[in-house]
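Subject: for your reference before the review

Hello V.,

The reviewers asked for a structural picture of the protein, and I figured it would be easier to keep everything in one thread rather than splitting it across files. Below is the amino acid sequence we used in the manuscript, unchanged from the supplementary table.
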Amino acid sequence: MFYTYVLLSQKDHHWYTGYSNDLKRRFKEHNQGLVYATTKRRPFLLLYYEACLDEDDAKARETYLKSGPGKRYLKNRLKFYINKCLTGTPEQVKLLYNNSSAVQFSQ
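And here is what came back from the structure prediction:
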């Protein structure tokens, strides 16, 4: 099983898209600063992921999600969650993150 995932930087609110065959391990690597591309943007929340049966499918999905149409797809797919995260007060956002599956996954 391979996973295409999107992380949300709590530092700068930018997204990082990648793929891995071990989502939990890779998520921990990002948050521990072991991934050069994201080390200065920590900490992260797991914003979105998809499971794929084949590595080539996961790579293709990653490429799509990084494209203009892919970003529009994600923003539309997650519009209510993203809006709550980015427009709430820090206390509301913290409560939302603490009640999300992303935070439970990261523990």
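For the response letter, the relevant points are probably these. Residues 101-107 have pLDDT under 50 and may be disordered. Residues 55-66 form the longest helix (12 residues).

Happy to draft the paragraph if you're swamped.

O.
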